[in-house]
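Second attempt. The first submission of Oxygen sensor histidine kinase NreB had a stray character pasted in from the spreadsheet, which I only caught after the job came back as garbage. Lesson logged: always re-copy from the clean sequence file. Corrected sequence (286 aa) follows.
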Amino acid sequence: MLVRWTLTRGRQIMRYAQPLLEIDIIVGGAVMLAGIALLLLWRQRYLRHALADLEQQLAQELERRQLAEQALADTRHQVGRLGASQQSLRDAERRRIARDLHDDLGQHLLALTFDITQLAQHHDTLAKPLAQIESRLQAASRAMHTIVRDLQPEQLESGLQGAVQQQVEQFSRLSGIPCRLEAEPAAFSAPTDERMDAVVFRVLQESLSNIARHAQASEVCIGLCRAAGSLSLTVRDNGVGLPDPPARRGCGLRGIAQRVAEAGGRFDIASQPGLGTALTMSFPIQ
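This time the job returned cleanly.
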């Protein structure tokens, strides 16, 4: 009897307690979902703040990089101006030396030639040795005029375009290697600094001289183009290329690299043995 009453009472208690248990489960689930939602919301805010910090760091890094690039550009510009100024001083010194050679030494050689001619007219026995001396003086005079032209190139008097065209024609005529000029119209459309013109011309001279001496090329192409703030010169040949590593390249290439660096420019070499060489020089211009 007692057992039956206990079972009956237990069933009644379970009947009333089951709804309460379901409510507890629902409330517990709701609390758990609310906790998860709060955790996700906190996580989202954390990620948003972290992303904002990263964006700020990226913006600061970009700003620092832009400042560094601007500082590098300013430094290159200053180096270019300094190099151009030094080149201008060297060119002025070359002109002075050329003028002194032409005016002083040239006059002395001319006077000696005149004296020898007069002496030969009065001393027949000395005619032959005096003729040999006169021939040597004439050879010395020709050598002097060649040096004067090299020190003070007359081509630049007609501007960079005329100088480049004349140099290309002269190279083809003297070396027998066909050389063509591919210049964009904009390359000569605006005036350039005379000092920079001299650097570009000297670099072109040295590049062609290297090709004539070493490249064994059958064709040469000169390219000139102007971009924003720079003038690019490219000298390509189809010769034997450059087998040596950069550290062992000849004095000609080192001289070109030095001239370009002093002008604040860039110098690149692309070459493979048997496939020719391409020299690319970029010069800063106003």
